[in-house]
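Sample 3 of the quickstart, ligand cobalt (II) ion:
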Amino acid sequence: MKVAPSILSADFGNLQHDVEEICNAGCDFVHVDVMDGHFVPNLTIGPVVVSSVAKCATKPLDIHLMVENNTFFVDLFAPLKPEYISFHVEEEKHPHRLIQKIRSYGIKPAIVLNPHTPPESIEYLIGDLDMILLMSVNPGFGGQSFIESVLAKAKKLNEMRNKLNPNCLIEVDGGVSDKNIRSLKAVGVDVVVAGSYVFKHDSKEEAIKSLQI
Ligand SMILES: O=C(CO)[C@@H](O)[C@H](O)COP(=O)(O)O
Ligand SMILES: [Co+2]
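Result:
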C-alpha cells in the first residue's frame, strides 16, 4: 500500500518543515488539496504556495482539485510537474477532454468520485486513467470519519479496473487510519491519503509505516 499524507493537516506556518518531515519519513506521494470555496465550502492554497511545496518535497506531488473550473486550475498547476492531477467527475462536463489535456502536459490523469457517485459513471473513462480516487468523506475538510460504504464501492471498482485497465491505481481519501487500512487493502486499494492520522502522530515514520502494509 502506498501512502500520500495530505498536507491539509500540516502546520501552514511551518509548511517546509512538515513537507520535509513526511518525505524523510518515507511517504510515497505528497497529497495537495486544492479547494476554491465554490465546489467545496473551504478554501486552501494556490500555485504560489504549491510551488514552494514542490521545491522542498523530495516525493512526487498528488494534486487533488476540488474546484469548479477544472481546466483553469489544470493549466495553473501543470508547470509544477506533479505526478498526478485528479479532478472530480461531478464537476466536469467533458472529463475525457480534460484527461487528454492533463496527459498532454506529461502528467498522470486521475478522476475523483464523491461518496455518492457510482463507479459505473466512469466505466468508459477507466481505460484512459492512471488512477481513480474514491472519497471516503465528503470533500472539503480533514479529520472527518471514514464512510464505510466506500469499501463495497472499492471492491466493485477493483473488479472493473482488473477487467478494463489493470494498470490504473485505486486511491482512497478521507478518514484513513490503522483501524481501516487492512479492510482497504483487502478490497484492492493501492494508495491511501491520510491527513490527520499522519500529522497527529509524533513519529511520522511510525504512522506512515503502519499504513504501508
Ligand atoms: O481531500 C480531502 C478532504 O477534502 C482529504 O485529502 C483530507 O485532507 C484527508 O484528511 P483526513 O480525513 O485523512 O484527516
Ligand atoms: Co484530498
